[in-house]
Amino acid sequence: MTAPATRTSPQGDQWPRWEVFKKDNDRRPYQAVGSVHAGDPQHALVTARNVFVRRPAAVSLWVVREQDILSATPEEIARGVTFRGPAGTYYVGIKATHKRSMTFVDLTGTVDATDGEDAMRQARAQHPDALAWWVIPDEAFARTEDGPDTVESWFAPAAEKTYKQQQYYGTIGRHVGELKRAGLMPSRTPDAQATPRPAATPDARPAPSAQKVPQ
After folding, report:
1. C-beta separation of 48 from 37 below 8 A
2. Which is nearest to 62 in space by CA: 99, 32, 40?
């Protein structure tokens, strides 16, 4: 794992929020899929894996503290919002459509900027029609390691848990049905069968309960 060497204290009664970026495969971009609360980068990555990679496929996870993300919408730009950040490489993320509900932004690339203001300016120039822009310093990300060993240890176990997928739930019912049709289902023995209770007759009424007469 590559990560900034930081540990943060709880804010009130919660750990800081970390935004989670997941890469489904080598052909897909990193996409923001949600957030987790964690005390440090390793904690954030492990929690992100447990929350967001229990069923779907993934080959890499990145996390970044919410406070390190510079974000803006066209409305905020019109109000003259300013952005502070160090000089260096920034990742650019954009929200391009309202149709995508499972992710907020896709990371589209990087820019070298003199500060946060310059990074946001370049992001807007590259994607003028975006619904929202994010710029994030490269050094702020915590990442899972690249390589087959990481994919095997972090993500392969979740990929093999097919019983968690909804389309596999029906397999149990079909299997039982096949056993019944083949006459292989165990039958109940006579001793195990409950004796049927006699049906109540119209005259059968419960006996009145005895009442204690006060002295």
Report:
1. no
2. 32
- Cα 210 from Cα 23, distance rounded (Å): 75
- Please, which residues have CB within 8 angstroms of residue 97's CB and are 6 or more apart in sequence? 131
How far lies 30's CA from each of 55, 108, 140, 190, 198, in Å?
A: 17, 8, 15, 62, 68
Q: Which helix or strand (DSSP H or E) is residue 120 part of?
A: helix 116-126
pLDDT exceeds 60 at position 190: no
Indicate the domain borders of the chain: 17-161
DSSP string, 14-39: BPPEEEEEEE-STTS--EEEEEEE-S
Question: Which among 85, 184, 191, 78 is positioned nearest to 138, based on CA atoms?
Answer: 85
Closest by CA to 137, choosing from 76, 73, 74, 84, is 84
Q: Kindly report the length of the chain.
A: 215
Two structure tokens written together for 171: 């397999």
Give residues with Cβ within 8 angstroms of 186, minimum separation 6.
Answer: none
Nearest to 106 by CA among 116, 92, 124, 125: 92
Q: Is the pTM of this model over 0.85?
A: no
**3-state DSSP call for residue 175?**
helix
pLDDT in tens, 135-147: 999 999 999 988 7
